[in-house]
Amino acid sequence: MASAAVVIPAHDAQETLAACLDSVLSQSVAPAQIVLVDDASSDGTASVAARYAGRVEVVRGERRLFVAGARNAGLRAARAEIVFFLDADCRADPRWLAAGLAAFRDAAVGVRGRTVYDHPEPGPRDRVIETGPRSAYFNTCNIAYLREALSKLGGFDERFWCGREDTDLAFRALGVGDILYDADMLVFHQRRFWTARQIMDDAPRDQLEVLFVKTYLFSRNPGHNERQRRAIAAFRDDCAWGRVLYPRKLLAAVFPPVLLLRYPVRSAADAASLPLCWLRFVIKRLMYWYGALRYRCAVV
């Protein structure tokens, strides 16, 4: 069986990191290497990581690398044949590594798994991330690649320093080989809530969304193969209606009552969070428009 390294980028992740590392150390097949990239955290992330000394290799930078740079730093430190990527706010099923390793085939450059939000009834406050077999996104909270292939591709493109770096890498990797899906490669996304600070921290990601769609949806890419064209078409179907990005989110921004259809309100806390949820959609749309000006891309 091929050797596996697990790369985990972490920034201010003290609340979720221990559960993440414990889940990796409890795998039915032990990884050859666990690399934690502490991305200039200002909370107790370093203290949590110190409890795993000798079992987890820590890469720590003096300045923020952000998600693309942090994953590249972890990739450079990885020595195994296959690199599994996991986020610090996730925990892996005990058979996650075994399932991912078993899923690799000769023609595959990568394998992505199933990600489930770790709460049965999320509300408007929840930061939900879920992926399945029909997902148009290649979230790096649960994916594995051949290390040699990533090295040849140059790793993550740091133009997408805080968003869409994962799907960009996948689209480029599909030019080399297939990315398979395996439902048994299971990850649980730990429950987290949106805050005003997190909404503002996410704003640059929404600008990069425009750069991403300009690169892949609205530019000619004659060199793409059939795998790449299918993946890009699936992304287009999910995110754009013509030049309108995420039309349902636009509707929620201009007509707030739509939020009641999108998010069932089950508690007073859910109801109180609806204004913040609406503000998130408004800021997201403003960032799309700013990105359209910055990257000279005609989107709404």
List the helices and strands and how they pair.
Elements: E1 4-10, H1 17-25, E2 33-38, H2 45-50, E3 57-60, H3 66-77, E4 82-86, E5 90-92, H4 96-103, E6 108-117, E7 142-146, H5 147-153, H6 165-173, E8 178-189, H7 196-216, H8 226-239, E9 240-241, E10 244-245, H9 247-254, H10 258-262, H11 268-294
Helix pairs in contact: 7-11, 9-11
Structure write-up:
With 300 residues, the protein is an alpha/beta fold. The chain has 2 domains: 4-189, Spore Coat Polysaccharide Biosynthesis Protein SpsA, Chain A; 196-294, no CATH class. 42% of the residues lie in helices and 19% in strands. It is built from 11 helices and 10 strands. The strands form 2 sheets. The protein has an 8-stranded mixed beta sheet with strand order 3-2-1-4-7-6-8-5. A two-stranded antiparallel ribbon has the order 9-10. Strand 9 (240-241) and strand 10 form a beta hairpin. Helix 7 (196-216) crosses helix 11 (268-294). The radius of gyration is 19 Å and the shape is globular. The N and C termini lie far apart (48 Å). The model has no long low-confidence stretch (mean pLDDT 93).
